[in-house]
């Protein structure tokens, strides 16, 4: 086990993992690691280079020759609502990777075994150097199997659709409730049926349903548990 405190959070799309993890990291003074952003970077690289998401070796090659950095947002310039600041070859791509195309592409490249292996190694290295809050879909059992606290953050399909729809409206994207529902259900199906590390709840994970909780309530709930474990 690492000398640093590791919080591993898994869960389905739009369950609030990103926002909860970022705010939790801020509250605890930990580094927030958005692993989903790493897969979005891989998708962005594929899109920009005209490579199909299914061309594993080509996508992996693009990722391996690129420099990927992550950090908590720096005020005041980067306090624009982003969950984390992602730097790709010196370029801030924090918002470039948040398009719907990158979102769809990230779940497609996430099934590529070689690519996942490269990113998992990068994620594990980060967690051995400092206290982290890391979220994704295979953190509790693949990336940080010895994490001090493992959480499966979930919510009802209705709550997740409403949250994602609101996110799109804020971004100025005109997407209907029906389209968002279809998108999330398809994403859930892909995540649950991946041949490599499908989304799952490990026995030792703390199941937290956020459907009827405010973000601050979820953060405070988890922070309290962390304090108890660190005492």
Give your account of this protein's structure.
The protein has 231 residues and is of the alpha/beta class. Helix content is 48%, strand content 15%. It has a single domain, classed as Rossmann fold. The strands form two sheets. It has a five-stranded parallel β-sheet, sandwiched between helices. The protein has a three-stranded antiparallel β-sheet with strand order 3-4-5, with helices on one face. Strand 4 and strand 5 form a beta hairpin. Helix 1 packs across helix 9. The longest helix has 16 residues. 39% of the residues are buried. The mean pLDDT is 93.
Are there runs of 5+ residues with pLDDT below 50, and where?
Answer: none
CATH superfamily: P-loop containing nucleotide triphosphate hydrolases
In round numbers, the mean pLDDT is 93
Read across the widest sheet, the strand sequence of neighbours is 2-6-1-7-8
What's the tally of helices?
9
In CATH's first tier, which class applies?
Alpha Beta
């Amino acid at each position: 086990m690492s000398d640093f405190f590791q919080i591993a959070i898994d869960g389905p799309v739009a369950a609030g993992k990103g926002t909860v993890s970022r705010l939790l990291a801020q509250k605890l003074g930990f580094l927030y690691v958005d692993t989903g952003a790493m897969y979005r970077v891989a998708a962005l690289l594929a899109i920009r280079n005209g490579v199909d998401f299914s061309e594993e070796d080509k996508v992996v090659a693009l990722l391996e020759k690129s420099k990927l950095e992550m950090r908590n947002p720096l005020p005041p310039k980067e306090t624009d609502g982003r969950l984390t600041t992602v730097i790709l070859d010196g370029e801030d791509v924090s918002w470039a990777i948040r398009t719907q195309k990158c979102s769809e592409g990230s779940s497609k490249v996430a099934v590529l075994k070689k690519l996942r292996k490269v990113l998992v190694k990068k994620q594990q290295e980060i967690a051995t150097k400092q206290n982290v809050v890391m979220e994704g879909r295979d953190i509790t059992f693949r990336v940080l199997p010895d994490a001090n606290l493992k959480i499966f953050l979930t919510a009802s399909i209705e709550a997740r659709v409403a949250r994602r729809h609101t996110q799109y409206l804020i971004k100025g994207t005109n997407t209907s409730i029906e389209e968002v529902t279809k998108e999330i259900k398809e994403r859930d199906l892909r995540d649950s049926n991946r041949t490599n590390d499908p989304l799952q709840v490990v026995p030792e994970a703390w199941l937290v349903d956020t459907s009827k909780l405010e973000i601050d309530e979820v953060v405070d709930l988890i922070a309290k548990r962390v304090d108890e474990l660190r005492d």
